[in-house]
Fold this protein.
Amino acid sequence: MIRLLFVLLFVLLFLILSMPLMLAEWIIGKCNPSLRDRSSLAIVNWAFRCVIFLSGTRVIVKGEENVPRDTAVLYVGNHRSYYDIILTYVRVPRPTGYVAKLEMLRYPLLNVWMHFLHCLFLDRNDLKKGLKTILKGVEKMKSGISICIFPEGTRNNTDQDFLPFHEGSFKIAEKAGAPIVPITMSGTNAIFEDHLPRIKKQTVIIEYGKPIHIQELDRETRKNLSGYVQQIMAEAYHRNLRELDEMEKAAG
């Protein structure tokens, strides 16, 4: 429980004490949007790194060299933990907005930082509004902002390794002509979700797959793009889970 209390206290203090920074970032954004993108990214990355440290989480990263640095990408990740966002966001090389559920707008102060970071808020109950969110994501990607989406649509708390991927999740990359970078996270649910409300010291593995250029795929693969990407991620997920199991056995 001590780790949980430390994390909650840090997050609360960060949100309250960063209010002057929010004002400064708002002013900077009016004069120099690209500067605000970089400064907001740096501030939130620092806060997330502190959360990771306080949680005692060790992160093994594979394939980070696969992430293009010169263009916006659509990150596609599996989602088993609240920590998935924290662990991946600290590694993005350029401004990146995450697709979040509409309910996140309810949280004051946090929603301000999310707006600064180009997050998109998806109404899962309104198809028309969902389409508008996708088109907004396309605009952001064309302007150089990467987007990260969890195509399962929600956090997976079932016994299944993956929930079915929604085909619509990939439309942003298709319409923006941007590459897809799979992010496979293994072991993240063991940090918190497996033993609520405690946060446990844990080693996790994050693996970045090679960029997928939709236009280079054959017609049949493009028709089943979600299944193709899920298969790539499933192979990495099980391989890395085995590695984590072997590490745990070796540690005794």
User: Anything to note?
Assistant: Residues 225-250 form the longest helix (26 residues). The chain has a mean pLDDT of 95.
